[in-house]
Amino acid sequence: MQKRRYFRVSLGWQIIIGLVLGIILGQIFYHNKxxxxxxxxxxxxxxxxIQMIVLPIVISCxxxxxxxxGDIKKLGRIGLKTLIxxxxxxxxxxxxxxxxxxxxxxxxxxNIHDLQSSDISQYTSSAKTAxxxxxxxxxxxxxxxxxxAAMGKxxxxxxxFFSVFFGLGIAAIGEQGQILTKVLDATAxxxxxxxxxxxxxxxxGVCALIGVTVGEMGFEALKPLGxxxxxxxxxxxxxxxxxxxLVGRIFHVKFYELFRIIENEVVLAFTTASSEAALPKMxxxxxxxxxxxxxxxxxxxxxxxxxxDGSAIYQSLAxxxxxxxxxxxxxxxxxxxxxxxxxxxxxxMAGVPGASFVVLLATVSTIGVPMQGLTFIAGIDRLVxxxxxxxxxxxxxxxxxIIAKSExxxxxxxxxxxxxxxxxxx
Length: 426
What we know:
Layout: H1 11-28, H2 33-69, H3 72-104, H4 121-132, H5 135-142, H6 147-153, H7 156-172, H8 178-199, H9 202-217, H10 226-250, H11 255-261, H12 263-272, H13 275-289, H14 293-306, H15 309-325, H16 332-348, H17 355-363, H18 374-377, H19 381-406, H20 412-424
Helix pairs in contact: 1-9, 1-12, 2-7, 2-8, 2-9, 2-13, 2-14, 3-10, 3-14, 3-15, 3-16, 4-17, 10-15, 10-19, 12-13, 12-19, 13-14, 13-19, 14-19, 15-17, 15-19, 16-17
């Protein structure tokens, strides 16, 4: 008997369908607080499911990867390469954002008095912390006094710090540590299986999250800031498909092939505006694509803190947009200062809810923009956040492959087999 062939809709298309339905529902129930609250609750539950599995995957994969690596000198070399690469790429993203803002002048086409203000009080305290914090504050926050407290708060850097040392400790005791390696390896495999189950409800979560955004804002709120949104997305697209593609070519990475492999995760990150939503599947796919577990488990979680290219583009664009809207003419020296301030502040605010907006709050005062100015773009922050989150995910996948290749820990034969099976839809 011939088996029946069923039409199968990929996860990416399911998420896009959820996105469209969310937009429709948001418009239908525009300003309907009861329905918006229901959608908010459903969206929050989906994000909570993702957050539930992220840290177990990071801890288990990173610890096993470092234990298998077993060489502190090699780890130091990989860490240094990774951080230099991240710094170069984010600085390049900031500079491109500033250049685009200087060329297009989006702020000169709006009247600041025509914009609606939004409440930004939830970001203010975090911004004050960023203003008074320095490099020592950042370094001290990396070392956890209580690893369980850090896990409970979802602080990624302290968890990475602990996992690295735990992995090195396992490697140092030799054969005795093998039982822990096996347990943690099994834990990672279990959590990847749980991830596959959670992803089945992703379209519902996406539908709810988008519905909330549209239901609260409506399309009318976007019109005055439409040009800024278009320029922001255009700049992000240029950075991904031109700058990242060129960087990939320099390091002999097939960028467009890589993008096709992670397209579902990019769509998921875009629609949820959450990097964490894509992290579990990203780590799984990058290993299958050819990178070793040690590289993947170190580069991707670290990149979610230090390699935020989309956020860097948005912050530089938004800062100059507001300066132009207030008729503040910035000299070359002031713009260079802005680049340096964004480079430092963005690293200190990683992991804070609404981090990109918090960085802006802590930065714009250095160029004379009134704090009130940010209330005018707060309403569209979620919409732009979708784009910058997607860029961040692409940037971290590219970084993983580049670092793996630089360490000769990328399996081309494994990549070819995975690409072939992925293309067939296995």
